[in-house]
Task: structure prediction
Amino acid sequence: MTASDTTHLLWTGGWDSTFRLVDLLLVKQRVVQPYYLIDHDRASFWIEMRTMHTLKNLLFRRFPECRTRLLPTVYKDIIDIKQNASITEQYQRLKASFQPWYDVGAQYEWLARFADEMGFADLELAFEANSALHTHSLADALQNSLVLESHGSDSRYRLASNPSNRDLQLFKNFRFPISAMTKADMQRVSERHGFDDLLERTWFCHSPLWGWRVPCGTCRPCRIVREEGFGRRIPLVGHIRYYLLYWTRTRAANLKKKVQQRTHWRH
Result:
């Protein structure tokens, strides 16, 4: 095994990165080095770590040939990532360019610092093609600035040399292997190769209820799961919370509109 045989992948125990992990190991038969960055401010980080442990056990039990190709996960606390003023400034400019439509997550800043610190030029980020909730989003901007490249028997996307937004250079050290796929595409591939049940064991919610494995139904990942037709993964309480939130926001928006109309009429 040489360094060129190894794919370096950010793995969180979520649907997208788990699909890429298993597809690399089982279908493409590549060696994978996973990385997980620990964010103690993220309410679900301990669930993600436990999920990855469970998934590895299931994977090795079902497909023992993958054991020799999956390297031990490298964990690193985000506090220990080396500071980089240039990357932080680039992130701040990129974030400002998307406001007020979209909030560019803070994780992209420390992910970029991590890739730079480790000397990666091709760290894989499982970033799916999702248009349902991404109007004016980072995903849209990236999709328009990615080019396809070959990677042995595989292919993946990288940032173009002249991206539409110069501050997208924040992602120059990443590769995007599934940016042309949706979750439905991934499900079809996983069903064809017999690992779809593993994807059903992945985790997605950022704000689990009661500190347990109960998706909240209202955080951004939960809303994306619903919009992409995977609402079955959210329990009844999550659906109830979603509709209550939707009803509350709708009522507040209608009330604001009425107040504005009355104020306009009086003047």
Residues 131-135 have pLDDT under 50 and may be disordered. The first strand starts at residue 6 and ends at 10. The longest helix spans residues 236-266.
